[in-house]
Amino acid sequence: MLSIVGDLPAAVTPAATASDRLALRAAIEAVECREGAEASPRTARIPTGWPDIDRALGGGLALNSVHEWFGLHESAEASGRVEQGGSGGVEQGGSGGGWLPPLTILLHLAHRATMHRAGLVVWIGARCHPSPPAMPRDLLSRSLFVSCDTRDQRIWAIDLSLRCAGVCAIIADASGLSMAESRRCQLAAAAGAAEGNGGALPLLARPSRERAHLSAARTRWLVCPASFNEHGPGWSIDLLRCKGVRPTPEDARRWVVRHEHATGDVYLVPESPARDGAAGQPPQRRTA
Q1: Longest dimension (CA), the chain
Q2: Which of 137, 247, 271, 275 has the smallest number of Cβ neighbours within 10 A?
């Protein structure tokens, strides 16, 4: 059992001071860091191929742990059409209205998973189905596309895939995921490893409006469009949460990656435009 050494602020209420809230947040992050410190050396990881991000993560994205990726944008009109509850009703307009999962990023990470693990990549929900011509041939040959008519079907497919011994990665539309379902996904990922599948990489895409929702995910990421130049489109990537890793300054949790049309590579921009405003400068290429 873990215990917190030192003084903690009284229970945070609406009247609590800002310093109390900051102290409580620091204490929680310290506990999460200690929880991950023992497991970290034994945790199998998939390197992202982006050195700075891999260093921040302790070597890459942890297997058997849920990683949430918040989508690019959504319209106000679409936000009003969010599906209600989890009763399993037919979804309107795909999966919860106008948002876009960061498919280029997820494609890159799925391809990285196939380089390190055997098994299939399962794409759950039409919103997360990439265009086959845009996929590397070796990734396409190991991909399974699952179409779902309802939110509950997507959650069921995620849970089943996480427990399957023949799966190395799951990329899924997880819009509308509740805290209980998020915990269920995390438990399923751990159970799949215990049953001998060697570990899968769950990458769950969610709309940005759900950032405030509680979640059991190990990491949470926000992807936003960055500048487009002659090299191709770019995205800023913010690490919102990383359990088991010592907290770092906010500006050290933000990076920019770019997709090069000519080669298909997604590479890290060394001097991040999100930090220094150098969005127009040609990046030094780092192949993923």
Answers
A1: 57
A2: 137
CA–CA separation, 241 and 35 (whole Å): 14
> What Rg do the C-alpha atoms of the chain give, in angstroms?
19
Calpha distance 63→157 (Å, rounded): 18
Q: Where are the alpha helices (DSSP H) in 163-257?
A: 179-194
| CA terminus-to-terminus distance, the chain | 40
Share of the chain above pLDDT 90, in %: 52
State the CB neighbour count (10 A cutoff) for residue 64.
Answer: 22
DSSP string, 38-85: HHGGG--EE--S-HHHHHHHTSSEETTS-EEEE-S-B-HHHHTTPPPT
> How many CB atoms within 10 Å of residue 203?
26
Supply the pLDDT for residue 284. 40
How confident is the model at residue 246, as a pLDDT? 66
Spatial CB neighbours of 250, under 8 Å, sequence gap ≥ 6: none
At CA 29, angle to CA 71 and CA 56, rounded to 5? 60
CA separation, residue 113 to residues 93, 97, 178 (Å): 30, 29, 26
Name the pairing type of β-strands 201-206 and 219-225. Answer: unpaired
DSSP annotation of 161: H
Tokens of 40: 């970290």
pLDDT surpassing 70 at residue 16: no
HSE-up of 155 (CA within 13 Å, CB side)? 19
36-77 pLDDT, tens digit per residue, is: 433 444 678 999 999 999 999 989 999 999 999 998 766 544
**Adjacent-strand bridge partners of 179:** none
Q: Which domains does the chain have, with CATH numbers?
A: 1-42 (no CATH), 45-276 (3.40.50.300)
